Amino acid sequence: MSGHDHTHAHMIRSDPSGRFVLHVDLAQDRIYTWRFDVERGALTPADSPFVSLPPGDGPRHFAFHPNGHWFYSIQEEGSTIVLFDYDGATGRLASRQTISTLPKDYAGSNFCAEILVSSDGKFVYGGNRLHDSIGIFAVGANGELTHVADEWTRGNYPRSFSFDPTGRFFYCLNQRADHVAIFEVTRETGMLRFTGQYAAAGNPSHLVFVEVA
Known about the structure:
Layout: E1 12-14, E2 20-25, E3 30-37, E4 42-52, E5 59-64, E6 70-75, E7 80-87, E8 92-100, E9 111-117, E10 123-129, E11 133-139, E12 145-152, E13 158-163, E14 169-174, E15 179-185, E16 192-200
Antiparallel strand pairs: 1-2, 2-3, 3-4, 5-6, 6-7, 7-8, 9-10, 10-11, 11-12, 13-14, 14-15, 15-16
């Protein structure tokens, strides 16, 4: 098992309309799309039931752009982000761009995990475990990504990350360092500035903000 978790790498989420449900299968290198019947609570395969990624790339997480038409998938083994055009009427995905999550000069092992899109849709963030960086990508007018920078995670094995509800702060969960590193987001440039603050947490995996009435 080489220290990372193939067994749990199955992300399941509905599309923005709630009419389709998508999930990744890391071992099969596929992203599946299901039609969701709200009345019966039943899932049936969509017209295009799945898309395949290159063998061994291992799709792990994905994120929709706020416009609902662009879909970004991050590959654990391939260390890539793929941009898909998403058809909300049929649930069909069509790949259009593949970009590396890593700097060109990096030659070692790496496993990707988390991917986030900023709430304004201008930037995409991809996590590199072992390279221990957050790849920052600008979103172009057509949804295509351009690599802007890499930010060191201030710890090792970034399992996931989250924005706070305001989008001002970015929390990176460094699983093997047993802490959450806190960054401030520069909204205009997408850059992350380390605040100097850590929150201790044993083997952190996921961080969710919940509104309490």
